[in-house]
Amino acid sequence: MRLQSYREWLFLESYSTVGDLGETIALILPDPIKILDKSLHEWMTELMALKPKSDAEKKDYVLNAWSGLHMQERLIFNKLIGGSFRIGVSKKTLVNALAKLSGIDANQLMHSIIGHWDVNSISFDALINGTHINYDNSKPYPFCLAYALEKELIDLGKPEDWQVEYKWDGIRGQIVKRNNEIYIWSRGEELVTEQFPELIESISILKGDFVIDGEILAVKDSAVLLFNDLQKRLNRKNVSKKLMEEVPIGFYVYDVMEWNGEDLRQHSMQSRRLQLEKLFENPTIPDNLKLSEVIQFKHWNALDTFRNHARSFNSEGLMLKQKKSVYHVGRKKAIGGNGKWSLSL
Is 277 a member of any domain? Predict the structure, then answer.
């Protein structure tokens, strides 16, 4: 009885020092009496097969595994059976690494991995090559980004050659609707479709195929909330009805890159805006889809008033877009003021 109590005390002291149960067990077990040489795939297949087994069968399997593994191997095994084997790598880092390894486009890999697939019926090569998906339906475009304005407004030329909108602090996103399938991409090349079910529901009402660019925002009672509120909705595996009511999501549309299969990026921004306005002529369009407001002004100095007032409704400032500009890829400092600039607070 005393020996048992001593052993329990020693184990608990060791556990409190190490701070991890799986590592503590791996360290105190005696040296292995045999060698078990199995691949990670084999271990995972056997562990999944253990689920319907009895406690006695599970115990025998674990003891047998411990007797054939070295300390580091035991640690990983213990993490696997305890469900705590995690590596702190972001999805984007993983996808970029796979893209470098395979030569496959990062966006396609993201879609392949996040898509629906069964680990028991798909190979690694089939997974990264996207044999289980139709990537053409979800493929996004590279985002057109803005530069902070580094010149005087008067140097941009005539005010009537520019379109000015409010700048918002949300998640820049693209919504892709093709062949009755809808996908939402963030600017970080992440597929975030399932995080915003209300946007999917709203977009599904609209007719036609399109790819639109805009800002994902927390919007409640027609007011844009702070980014801190939006963060409550990010990276959620399951979005509860309560959370959707507390932090509803809206999409403020800036631009359109594709319309019914036609790439519009080389069309002027002015013509793309007209196409967007046609989309929003639908009287039944849901309230959480908003066409970005165009600020009406005649003189450059009038923008100071709009800019100074922007913070009162959680806008970051103003966006200035040259009406004849095309939809550039990335950030491009355009010659002669032909481009996209931001005027932040």
Answer: yes
